[in-house]
Amino acid sequence: MAREFTQKINKKYMLKIKEGDQLPVIVGETQHQDKIDLSSFLGDQNVVLYFYPKDNTPGCSLEAREFNQLMGDFEKLQTQVIGVSTDTKVSHTSFCGKYQLNFPLIADSDLRISRLLGALGENGRTTLRITFVIDKKGAVRKIYEDVKPAGHAKEVLEFLRTSLF
């Protein structure tokens, strides 16, 4: 127990939500200028809410492309993938166009969502690389911290297959 406590203190951030918690109300704007309310997926779809630091950087681009390549598999598991970064809607529109991304990206340029979940990085301007898997009832079933972009989408898909179905 003491070791676990020490590890949490040594983190440069502290998540404000844990596995088993209900996801708080999250509403944001996407690259299409649409409002998206995560509670609208309750009862119908699981949600993969993944935070990434910045559009058009190597790791973030790789992660987004891998989620995009597996979208059909996520859809078969009734799961909506949603990306979040502190970039603007204009940046997200360009990023989605460049990589032909077929899922929404929330522009958290006011940092509200990142602060709400404790996903804001040490610099206070970008998000950490964290993924939340939320079930159809709105419960956070899995949190991936310190995500490595390569293979992460497949890792999340496998969790959904083995744990939620």
How would you characterize the overall build of this protein?
Helix content is 35%, strand content 19%. By secondary structure, the protein is of the alpha/beta class. The chain has one domain: Glutaredoxin. The strands form two sheets. The chain has a five-stranded mixed β-sheet. Strand 4, helix 4 (89-99) and strand 5 (105-107) form a beta-alpha-beta unit. The chain is globular and about 35 Å long. The protein starts with a helix and ends with a helix.
Strand content: 15-25%
Q: What gyration radius follows from the Cα positions, in whole Å?
A: 15 Å
Under the CATH scheme, the architecture is 3-Layer(aba) Sandwich
Reading side by side through the largest sheet, how are the strands ordered? 5-4-3-6-7
Write a concise keyword list for the protein shown above.
165 residues; alpha/beta; Glutaredoxin; two-stranded antiparallel ribbon; 6 helices; 7 strands; disordered N terminus
